[in-house]
Design brief:
The complex is a heterotrimer.
Chain A: H1 4-30, H2 45-78, H3 95-124, E1 134-141, E2 144-149, E3 154-157, E4 159-163, E5 168-174, E6 179-181, E7 190-192, E8 198-202, E9 210-215, E10 228-234, H4 236-247, H5 257-267, E11 297-298, E12 303-304, H6 307-315, H7 317-320, H8 333-345
Helix pairs in contact in A: 1-2, 2-3, 5-8, 6-8
Chain B: H1 2-5, H2 23-28, H3 33-61, H4 72-106, H5 115-133, H6 135-138, H7 162-190, H8 203-235, H9 256-290, H10 297-310, H11 326-354, H12 363-384, H13 388-394, H14 398-428, H15 434-460, H16 477-507, E1 539-540, H17 545-550, E2 565-566, H18 596-614, H19 622-641
Antiparallel strand pairs in B: 1-2
Helix pairs in contact in B: 3-4, 3-5, 3-16, 4-5, 4-7, 4-9, 4-14, 5-7, 5-18, 7-8, 7-18, 8-9, 8-10, 9-11, 9-12, 9-14, 10-11, 11-12, 12-14, 12-15, 14-15, 15-16, 18-19
Chain C: H1 2-6, H2 25-51, H3 61-64, H4 67-93, H5 96-126, H6 135-166, H7 175-201
Helix pairs in contact in C: 2-6, 2-7, 4-5, 4-7, 5-6, 6-7
Classes of the chains: A alpha+beta, B mainly alpha, C mainly alpha.
């Protein structure tokens, strides 16, 4: 039975598949630089340590991959059956070889294990740069993030600001179910677990100034997909300015729509769940809205913070993000516009 | 069956023996390991289609950003049921199908040690599968993920009874798995043919044996976890509840991490429960299709045993982001990396078996080769997230989705298809078409890599798992489109298989006893085997006994003795098609059919259903559970009073 | 060769194949089951230990334990193992009369234990230790409750053997049935010794 004719196209396909897989593997390291949530373009000291470790393991894996798959492919091609009933020498094993491929992989794994364990302990120890750290408490809620700066007196939601060059120590916990805090640019994720506080640290690079994406990484119920956050790495001056602004009580509403909206807000059910510092609104169930106008997104990073989106959200929160905990009586379109005007003015 | 018809009235049990040799009742009351194997296979394949449909729906939802094909609740239910179905209702029972059908044949036995317990396992499995999926009928589908992390599963955060369907369904499936595992453990320890020592057992029998041990030791742990979760949800206990039951009450004091430990102590061995049988199948197929005995048999056996042992020491590598201590993380990282060593030995030994062989690239071999190639990729990405710091970037992203599918689809499913193509002729007597098989392989291989290869990139680009939607501009659009196309290619490949199967059953080429030039005992008997399997229990004098018998010139140095399969020889002539048992003179005694396993399985269904009825809040409906348990007790009573065989009328 | 394997034999093949190890199948099954049950109780005991000393509120299990009382019922269970040994010895000698006596004694001592547990649960309940009160109550009741369920199952098994003995269906040849029930019974006793030590005796 001649097989060579029918075999060749198959082998070509197989080779293509393998080549595809290899090139695909290469891309895993190169990845898509424009993906805003990419895990392989670190912007912090801790992120870089993880990336170095990943790079080491990755390239070792590539070598093993090419070796094993190449050997497999070579074997299949070279020893494919050319005619029925070929005599085949009956080897049963080779102890030396088998010991070799027990020992060699063990050595390779040791080369991975040693830097792995040293990195684990670095991550577990106090941060290397301890001057003037920024302490943040992250609290996961279904389905939004609360950020508290206990030393700075700032409370905000869904948008985290950190200064470049200063170490951030993050304490992560949860108010309800398990979530996971994850901004890939800064490093790995840490689970937010009720009754527990997990910590991590990282120091954003000066080059990382700008906006970075993050989101909840542990399935936390219906709207897990829309529990997103933004990290803004600021220059030192910008960060200080931001802190000053956030510490201030809510700006008094000017005249016009915002003024009417403020009155409406204080009479509404909103105040039972939300806090606006300096007003009667002192609820703690939903996000702190004292400076909500200064945020770029609403609904946990889901939609841009524009007057139209905000009014839509207030009129129909369940339509925008079904299942979220914001339930309120029907709001008329004009009232919603007033609410939005007021909230937008809270900068 | 013929033995049953030969007999009449006398009976020792409560019910008359079922006597129908054919038809629905003969299948419902069968305790023939081969028929039970076929039942497992068919049921699991139907669940495979359901689970695959769930996957296609998910891929359709993710084909573009902000898609609205599915809502969040529907998507969450689909990924929960897809994972649960594929693990517990597809890969495990497909493996069990081969345990049932093939292992007794490979060890030269006429049935398993406890044939009625075996039938009971199947009916309980079916009950569990149905209970698990019943939620679809009332719109309360489990939607908290197959890992069911507390406190999301508490009545506070998941008031729907969907979680209860999952808890009860999985508990019942656990009973089925345990019963089957006990049975295979005893069967392999006790019923090996004379001369078939442990170190002569075929690798598939070895992996069945080790898998059974894993089930026996791992499933009680999930049983306890599920009991605790059920108590929390139904009776207000506080194993995992963090928040107080009533406002103002003291904090409940439960620790959600306890669930994760219990769950993964079970679920990591479970991963090996899914992959070891696949490795066993590949270890059967590769030697036969390269006409060489397995390279390094003892190392292969030690590798299986050490993988199984290590699988109990690595569970917390699923918990690297939960705030383990540095010491614990280092330990679990090291033990996880250690598993790569025996796994590597297996891969090198398979390739060495191929090396120097005469490799026939028939469909079973293609799937087995696909297994080796794809499982290697899954193993390598596994080493990456064995490193905890790296894992904190990869955990719960599509990178892990890619990894686990390279292991469980590129691994288990490819190997199970290799097994289907390999043993189909033994089971049906006809060959599956090889051309269609090649077509199916390439469609599945390409579709698989299109679907799950790009998920590596999605993970590296930061796409989390278990999200029903994503925004445009995240850089995830392209690979999601590619993955969805790949998923539908896989769907087409499954259709090709179904066509091939029907074609084979109608017009397939007759297989004969030994279509592949096999090595092990199952190929010494007719295809399909007579219900008593072996006329004479063979005596085995080496590994690969049939191979040595057919090719004494190839006998290796390891094999002493000139007569690898000794039977009571000296009779040639009439083809033994089973007709000889009809005259009753030398009827081979195989266990008779029984109603009791079916009734006991039905009782378990009723008991589980009672728990679900009461999950709505009305605990008095637990009376239904009582009725179910009563049925179970009566059935076991009737079962124990019924002899395995009816006394033969002289 | 295939013909060889499938050819009809000249004389009826032996019906019962010898087990490969010489052990009885059912006995091996029971040992496998007990191995599995070890993991079952292991997981329940670990659940108890995880929360031990971290209980919130009162009463917690250690507030309500009456160790002398529980020691008595533990002693009854321990003695039942002795009776079980004697029952097995009796049937192995073919002494069905003593078999009946010792089976009944074993089951009776088991019932004393279960009665004691029911009384204990009731008392604890009155003193405020409940299933849902705190993690102490939760883990205590579920662990000891499942042990009690195991003992109850054992009692039912022993009594069914007793009934068969009374009806004259037990003979020396069936000593294995008693032996397997005995394996189960001794295991359940050993588990109680562990639970009693870990839960009641070792101070926090």
């Amino acid at each position: 039975m001649t097989r060579a004719g029918s075999l060749r196209p198959r082998l070509i396909t197989l080779s293509c598949a393998i080549l595809f897989a290899i090139s695909a593997g290469g891309c895993t390291q190169l990845a898509n630089p424009s993906a805003p949530q990419s895990t392989v373009f670190p912007g912090s000291d801790w992120g870089r340590m993880i990336q170095d470790l990943y790079g080491l393991i990755f390239w070792m894996a590539v070598v093993v991959f090419v070796g094993v798959e190449g050997f497999l492919l070579y074997t299949v091609i070279r020893f494919r059956r050319r005619r029925e009933g070929e005599a085949v020498s009956q080897t049963h094993g080779n102890t030396l070889l088998e010991v070799a491929w027990t020992v060699v992989p063990s050595i390779v794994l040791l080369m991975i294990a040693v830097p792995t364990i040293s990195t684990i302990f670095i991550g577990d120890m106090p941060p290397p740069v301890t001057t003037n750290p920024v302490r943040v408490t992250v609290i996961g809620h279904q389905w939004w993030w609360e950020f508290r700066y206990p030393d700075l007196g700032v409370v905000t939601a869904n948008e985290l600001h950190l200064p470049a060059g200063r170490t951030a120590t993050i304490e992560v916990t949860s108010a309800d179910v398990i979530h996971s805090f994850w901004v890939p640019k800064m490093g790995g994720k840490v689970d937010a677990i009720p009754t527990r506080i997990n910590t991590m640290w990282f120091t954003p690079d000066a080059a990382a100034v700008g906006e970075h994406f993050g989101q909840c990484a542990e399935f936390c119920g219906l709207q897990h997909a829309n529990m997103r956050m933004r990290l803004f790495v600021d220059t030192a001056a910008n960060f200080d300015a931001w802190v000053q602004q956030q510490r201030a009580p809510a700006s008094a509403a000017a005249a016009g729509d915002a003024q009417q909206g403020a009155e409406l807000f204080q009479r509404s059910a909103c105040i039972t769940c939300h806090t606006i510092k300096g007003t009667n609104a002192q609820g703690t169930i939903g996000p702190d809205l004292t400076h909500v106008g200064s945020r770029t997104t609403i609904a946990a990073g889901m939609i841009d913070n524009t007057p139209e989106n905000l009014a839509h959200w207030i009129r129909d929160p369940q339509g925008v993000k079904v299942g979220n905990k914001m339930v309120l009586p029907q709001v008329s379109e004009s009232d919603a516009r007033l609410f939005a005007a007021y909230l937008q003015s809270l900068r | 069956m013929a033995t049953a018809t030969a007999r009449a009235a006398p009976r020792a049990g409560i019910l008359a023996r079922p006597v129908a040799p054919m038809g629905i009742w003969s299948w419902l009351t069968t305790i023939d390991h081969k028929r039970i194997g076929i039942l497992y296979e068919l049921t699991a394949f139907i669940f495979f289609l359901i689970g695959g449909l769930e996957a296609l729906l998910m891929r359709s939802q993710l084909v573009q950003p902000d898609n609205t094909l599915l809502g969040p609740g529907q998507y969450n239910a689909l990924f929960t049921m897809h994972g649960t179905t594929m693990i517990f209702l597809v890969v495990m029972p497909l493996s069990a199908a081969f345990f049932n059908y093939i292992v007794p044949l490979q060890i030269g036995a006429r049935d398993v040690a406890f044939p009625r317990l075996n039938a009971f396992s199947y009916w309980v499995f079916l009950s569990g599968g149905v209970l698990m999926n019943l939620g679809f009928l009332i719109g309360a589908v489990p939607d908290m993920g197959w890992f069911a992390y507390s406190p999301l599963t508490s009545s506070q955060f998941s008031p729907s009874v969907g979680v209860d369907f999952w808890v009860v369904g999985l508990q019942v499936l656990g009973v089925a798995s345990l019963a089957a595992a006990f049975n295979f453990l005893v069967t392999i320890i006790q019923m090996r043919a004379p001369g078939l020592s442990f170190m002569r057992m075929p690798l598939f029998t070895w992996t069945t044996f080790v898998t059974s041990i894993l089930i026996v030791l791992a499933f009680p742990v999930i049983a306890v976890a599920l009991i605790e979760l059920m108590f929390d949800r139904l009776f207000g206990s506080t194993f995992f509840n963090v928040t107080p039951a009533a406002a103002g009450a003291a904090a409940a004091g439960g620790d959600p991490i306890l669930w994760q430990h219990l769950f993964w102590v079970f679920a990591h061995p479970e991963v090996y429960i899914l992959i070891l049988p696949a490795m066993g199948i590949v270890s059967e197929v590769v030697p036969v299709f390269s006409r060489k005995p397995l390279f390094g048999y003892p190392f292969m056996v030690y590798a299986v045993v050490s993988i199984a042992f290590l699988s109990f020491t690595v569970w917390a590598h699923h918990m690297f982001t939960t705030g383990l201590s540095a010491i614990a993380m280092s330990f679990f990282a090291a033990s996880t990396m250690l598993i790569a060593v025996p796994t590597g030995i297996k891969i090198f030994n398979w390739i060495s078996t191929l090396y120097g062989g005469s490799i026939a690239l028939k469909a079973p071999a293609m799937f087995a080769l696909g297994f080796i190639a794809m499982f290697t990729i899954g193993g390598l990405s596994g080493v990456m997230h064995a490193s905890p710091p790296v894992d904190t970037q990869q955990q719960d992203t599509y990178f892990v989705v890619a990894h686990l599918h390279y292991v469980l689809f590129g691994g288990s499913i490819f190997a199970l298809f290799a097994g289907i193509y390999y043993w189909w002729p033994k089971i049906t007597g006809r060959l599956l078409g090889d051309g269609l098989g090649q077509l199916q392989f390439w469609l599945m291989f390409i579709g698989f890599n299109l679907t799950f290869g790009p998920m590596h990139f999605l993970g590296v680009d930061g796409m989390p798992r278990r999200v029903y939607t994503y925004s445009p501009g995240m850089g995830w659009e392209l690979w999601n489109v590619v993955a969805t196309i790949g998923a539908f290619v896989i769907g087409v490949s499954v259709l090709v298989f179904i066509f091939n199967a029907f074609k084979s059953l109608r017009t397939g080429e007759r297989a004969g006893d030994d279509p592949w030039d096999g090595m092990t005992l199952e190929w010494t008997i007719p295809s399909p085997p007579p219900h008593y399997n072996f006329v004479e229990i063979p005596t085995v004098a080496g590994r690969n006994p049939l191979w040595l018998q057919k090719h004494p010139e190839l006998a290796g140095r390891h094999v002493p003795g000139a007569d690898p399969i000794a039977t009571d020889t000296g009779h040639s002539g009439s083809e033994g098609s089973g007709a000889e048992s009809h005259d009753g003179h030398h009827a081979v005694h195989v266990p008779d059919p029984s109603y009791w396993p079916l009734f006991a399985g039905a009782g378990i269904f009723v008991a589980g259903f009672g728990v679900l009825l009461s999950a709505g809040g009305n605990l008095s409906l637990l009376a239904v559970t009582g009725v179910g348990l009563f049925i179970v007790i009566v059935s076991i009573f009737g079962w124990s009073l019924e002899p395995v065989n009816e006394p033969v009328q002289a | 060769m295939q013909q060889v394997a499938s050819a009809p034999p000249a004389h009826p093949p032996t019906h019962v194949e010898e087990p490969s190890t010489g052990l009885n199948n059912r006995k091996v099954l029971m040992w496998a089951f007990l191995g599995s049950d070890c993991m079952f109780f292991g997981a329940l005991i670990v659940s108890y230990l995880v929360y031990r000393g971290r209980w919130q509120g009162h009463p917690v299990p250690t507030d309500v334990f009456d160790i002398p009382y529980t020691s008595v019922s533990a002693f009854a269970l321990l003695m039942s193992s002795l009776a079980m040994v004697l029952a097995l010895a009796a049937i192995q000698r073919g002494d069905i009369r003593r078999l009946k006596i010792w089976l009944l004694t074993t089951a009776g001592l088991g019932l004393v234990f279960i009665g004691g547990q029911i009384f204990e649960f009731t008392t604890f309940g009155h003193e405020g230790l409940t299933l849902g009160g705190n993690t102490g109550g939760t883990t205590f009741f579920v662990l000891t409750g499942f042990h009690g369920a195991h003992v109850s199952l054992g009692i039912a098994w022993l009594l069914s053997l007793f009934v068969q003995a009374v009806r004259g269906q037990m003979a020396q040849a069936r000593s294995l049935d008693v032996e397997i029930a005995g394996l189960y019974w001794h295991f359940v006793d050993i588990v109680w010794i562990i639970i009693f030590t870990v839960v009641y005796l070792i101070p926090i």
